[in-house]
Amino acid sequence: MAKFRINLGVTGGIAAYKAVEVMRLLQKRGCDVSVAMTRHATEFVQPLTFRALTDKHVIVDDYDPQNPDPIAHINFSQNIDLLLIIPATANIIGKFANGIADDFLSSTYLATTAPVLIAPAMNTTMWDSAATQRNVRQLKKDGVHFVEPVAGELACKTVGTGKLEDVENIVAQVLWLLSEPPTVAGGLTGQAELPDVRINMAKVQPPATAGGSDLNGERFLITVGGTREAIDPVRFISNHSSGKMGFAIAEAAAARGADVTVVAGVTTIDPPSNVNVIRAVSASDMHAAVVKELSSTTVFVGAAAVADYAPANAAEGKIKKDGRDFMILELKKTPDILAEVSKRRSKGMLVVGFAAETNDVIGYARSKMKKKRLDMVVANDITKKGAGFNTDTNIATIITRSGSEIELPLMSKREMADRILDEIVKLRKVAEARA
Ligand code: PMT
Predict the structure, then answer these.
(1) Bridging pattern class, strands 150-153 and 219-224
(2) How far is the CA of 292 from the centre of ligand 1 (A)?
(3) Disulfide-capable partner of 124 in 112, 162, 256, 336 (CB 3.0 to 4.6 Å)?
């Protein structure tokens, strides 16, 4: 018997071909996949492809006389474990968010009681548009899960956020979601067989105290997101940080009883509602905000990707090309916020850093821990699929002052946040025992 029944909705974007890869990977993990496509999706991939691989009728139009089931949108949406949409266009997101049911897939969304996971892919401007972001926020409020698009080169040859997340990461998110206990009517099946499919999560223990009160009395100050260093009024230097990791820690710490303030740089997602937010754009803004907030802090977490260098003299007016083929930009070092917090720390304050590395990850992370006198460092190997910048998942190693290394395999950033907090709670207990 199939472990999970998944209905895959494919909509009309260039990434539609990747839905075939996701479907194959899910089938390999023992899932039974049925497919529905929007009319526009069929311009990119033929229904026959999915039909040949699933051995099932692919529904595009439920009024089609070829359709074997006269009330397909009801039957297709019931008794399933997940409705998965890959890729999701701005159009389908808009329809789902506003209850429009003018084709088979949008009717199916309204009729289903199963969890829904959406993986959007579109041009950056369409993704960033106020309407799309409003619709995404609405769907999240409605309980819909998202595998957020990532930054990269898009089919339209522009670079920005809007690319479909890697297929392996989408599959990991699907399996992670299905491994959670059922929360909705008509929810998950096959729970008894769960360990077989939790391949990426096999080593993951559930968070020890998630949702408890083991951080009561702690005051967290967390830097989040990327910084933006002005070159002139229209150009800047920045990085791919989305704020997902830092906000996940903030949300989890607040859920465990801490009073949480985040100093957020540039982020692509909204902050959680249960924390105080101070906005900062550049490294020097972030530095100033942190210094101001530090006195009452008991735990500092540096999750932000702070620029190490900024233009020495940002131009007041837009820099002109003036026929030059080369231009030299003079950069100066930014304040090292984490190192300074560590230096200024009050008695009992725990200081936690992150390290985003591409090689000798543990070596560099250890040397940062020593140089900045940290209690703990979370080392991300950003070359690994599903780890680091702008993903919903992460893979990391926690290194503590005592020298221990805790490997965290692929998991959602929210789950990782709780694992990091578990280690902070242990450090606090050790510090209290020593005091
Ligand atoms: O935001 P996401 O898209 O979810 O991505 C998460 C992340 C990859 C950004 C995060 O998990 C991460 O690894 N953050 C640190 C990235 C980084 O810039 O590392 P670093 O090796 O350059 O810096 C080491 C530490 O010093 C970090 O804690 C950093 O916040 C801090 N730092 C660095 C420079 C500086 N001027 N001030 C700092 O405080």
Answers:
(1) unpaired
(2) 20
(3) 162
**How many CB atoms are located within 10 Å of the residue 333 CB?**
11
Atom of ligand 1 lying closest to residue 308 CA: 36
Domains of the chain, CATH where assigned: 5-188 (3.40.50.1950), 219-434 (3.40.50.10300)
CA distance 273 to 249: 13
SS (H, E, C) 158-186: CEEEEECCCHHHHHHHHHHHHHCCCCCCC
Among 424, 428, 429, 426, CA closest to 249: 424
Q: From CA 180, how far away is CA 432, in angstroms rounded?
A: 35
The reply to whether ligand 1 has any atom less than 6 angstroms from the CB of 390 is yes
Distance 368 CA to ligand 1 centre (A): 11
* pTM recorded for the entire structure: 0.60
pLDDT score at 197: 27
Q: Where are the alpha helices (DSSP H) in 198-260?
A: 244-255
The best mutation among 165, 306, 371, 416 to test binding of ligand 1, ranked by most ligand atoms within 8 Å of the C-beta, falls on 306
305 ligand 1 Cβ < 6 A: yes
Q: 276 or 150: which carries more pLDDT confidence?
A: 276
- Is the Cα dihedral 240, 243, 244, 246 positive or negative? positive
